[in-house]
Amino acid sequence: MRGLLAEAAEAGASDLHLSAGARPFVRRNRVLEDLDDAPLGPDAALRLNLALLSPEQRTFFLNEKDLDYALAVGPEQRYRVNLMFHKSGAAGCYRIVPGQPRTLDELGYGQHVPTIEKLLSYHNGLILVTGPVGAGKTTTLASLVALLNNTREDHIITVEDPIEVVQPAAGCNVTQREVGIHTRSFASALKGALREDPDIIVVGELRDLETIEMALTAAETGHLVIGTMHTSDAATTLNRLLDAFPAGQQPQIRSSVSESLRGILCQRLLPALDGTLALACEILVNNTAVTNLIRDGKVTGLRNTMETGSRDGMCLLDASVFALWEQGRISAASAKANINNRSLRARIS
Q1: What is the DSSP track for 16-66?
Q2: CA-CA distance, 172 to 40, in Å (whole number)?
Q3: From the centroid of its chain, how far is CA 125?
Q4: Is residue 205 a part of any domain in this protein?
Q5: Per-residue pLDDT, 147
Q6: How many CB atoms lie within 10 A of CB 11?
Q7: Which residues contact residue 180 at a Cβ distance below 8 angstroms, ignoring those fewer than 6 apart?
Q8: Non-local CB neighbours of 193 within 8 Å, separated by 6+ positions
Q9: Banded pLDDT at 274 (limits 50, 70, 90)
Q10: Cα Rg of the chain, angstroms
Q11: What are the angstrom distances between the C-alpha of 346 and each of 66, 76, 306, 320, 335?
């Protein structure tokens, strides 16, 4: 089992799948590749997926039929694991976690790095990292924490499910907590964090009303809060954030978000022509115009404001995808599939 995991990591895969009734396969640059021609039998699949579990984890999985956990195989090999049962038997998905956080340049943010560094220079407020599943949000979050850790002297508390990238203390004191092991939930960890003298709070996912409410409270009370959401662009992110609250609270919440939001980083990974993945991004920086739109409930006007906000470091996803095509990094078909603006699509040949 350790050999399979090491082989997948060395091959540059992002995920290893071991499922009863299916051939073992990996996902590399969004493409599925079989490791063997023979499917795994139920006994072999169960044996492999149980091999690296502790006695407590094994008992929990066999009773509950589902398990999420972080797996460390040596100092540089970490995996985010999901185990489950299905009609043919046991199955496991092993997400390979980089041993060290990557820099924003390495991730592909390039010219946008100064904008992100400015967002991280604030000592309070809310920064959101968003994108669809598999867009690299966790990797970007780890990169942001590493940048803060190396450039500031603060107390960082992270709440993750599970802990993926270990962040040793550098300039900052870093406290990493895992949901299920160190705390009951994201919301309870955030509530406790406010009494633990943090400067920066990092939330693995803002997934429910209670967690979002606690994150906003922390941002308003003098903490820099960074979290992720599963949304595709800045406007959708704001709508999801605001719509989580009841209608009676909308005026108050719009005012709160307009004042506490620092910025939104939306990202998407597209297949590149060289066989790797290219990062396309959308960046919202909360300036006076954006603040007024949020407070007045006119999020539909956000796109026009972002188009004229390049001086503040803003960019639209459509423009980022178009730039990747102009640079020859992605195909015309991929660019057209990810651009909504008709005039930009028409310029792609």
Answers
A1: EEEEBTS--EEEETTEEEES-SSPBPHHHHHHHHHTT--HHHHHHHHHHSE
A2: 46
A3: 19
A4: yes
A5: 97
A6: 13
A7: 68, 161, 162
A8: 157, 159, 201, 218
A9: very high
A10: 21
A11: 47, 46, 21, 16, 11
Tokens linked to 174:
């870093």
The answer on 297 and 158 residing in a single domain is yes
Residues 48 and 109 in one domain: no
Judged against a pLDDT cut of 80, whether residue 209 lies above it is answered with yes
pTM: predicted TM-score of the whole model, two decimal places: 0.91
For 181, the 3-state DSSP assignment is: coil
Contact criterion met (CB below 8 Å) for 139 and 98: yes
Confidence at residue 162, expressed as pLDDT on a 0 to 100 scale = 85
Shared-domain flag, residues 32 and 114: no
For residue 100, the model assigns a pLDDT of 86
Token reading at 75: 């100092």
Pick from 67, 97, 127: which residue ends a domain?
97
Task: Answer whether residue 190 is part of any domain.
Answer: yes
- Residue 92 belongs to domain spanning: 2-97
Say whether both 134 and 261 belong to one domain. Answer: yes
Check whether residue 36 and residue 60 sit in a common domain: yes
Domain co-membership, 70 together with 127: no
Residue ending a domain, choose from 97, 121, 154: 97
Beta strand extents in the chain (DSSP E only): 15-19, 25-28, 31-34, 66-72, 78-86, 89-97, 125-130, 155-160, 173-178, 200-203, 224-229, 261-271, 277-285
Q: Is the pLDDT of residue 75 over 80?
A: no
CATH number reported for the structural domain that contains residue 190 in this entry: 3.40.50.300
| pLDDT surpassing 90 at residue 189 | yes
Q: Map residue 158 onto helix, strand or coil.
A: strand
Q: How many domains does the chain have?
A: 2
Statement: residue 74 has pLDDT above 90: no
User: What's the gap between Cα 99 and its chain centre?
Assistant: 17
